[in-house]
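Narrative summary of target 7.
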Amino acid sequence: MSRAESRIWNDVDAYLSALLAPEDEALTAALRDSDAAGLPHINVAPNQGKLLQLLAQVQGARRILEFGTLGGYSTIWLARALPEDGRLISFEYEVRHAEVARRNLDRAGLGRLVEVRVGPALQSLPKLADENPEPFDFVFIDADKANNRNYVEWALKLTRPGALIVLDNVVRAGRITDAGSDDPGIRGTRAALELIASHPRVSGTAVQTVGSKGHDGFALARVLY
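Modeled conformation, tokenized:
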């Protein structure tokens, strides 16, 4: 990627976001406070957040499951798609990140709809399953990439037929094509994509994107039954 390409990508994202996904004070403050707390700058772009919100709305989602809360920026976009009786459960590994996210969600008036569960998701998921929760309508996976296949497998256990699963960051600047990569994130993401391709209960695809987040992409998977 040349500097000229990067500048064009950033300019286009800025234009599209300002026009179609303008941030309000709650979203702006969430990014500001996340930055002040030293959280990594890996949140979705505003136009990507709006896409998640629209997908959840089209889905008619009442229950959303999120892997990777960070500072709650994507969580705000998603929670705003919920009805008043909706529920969003978000898994976050880092205690500090969860604290920032909860403050951001409360300020956005969404704390009543969202529960942030702290700790390794693969330890929290069996506990969630033991609660026999109402099946989820929408799942957003944006956590540690090495466990992407595990997260997709759990998503299939916890969703209803017709549910939508979104798996973020599946292109990794093109490195996803390297079958011999020893990068755990690449291997985990390839394994997740292969699961989506082969699982009888799933119909899915993936799209590469360019923008302020560089060259990446996302996968969409629909639970068939």
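The longest helix spans residues 3-20.
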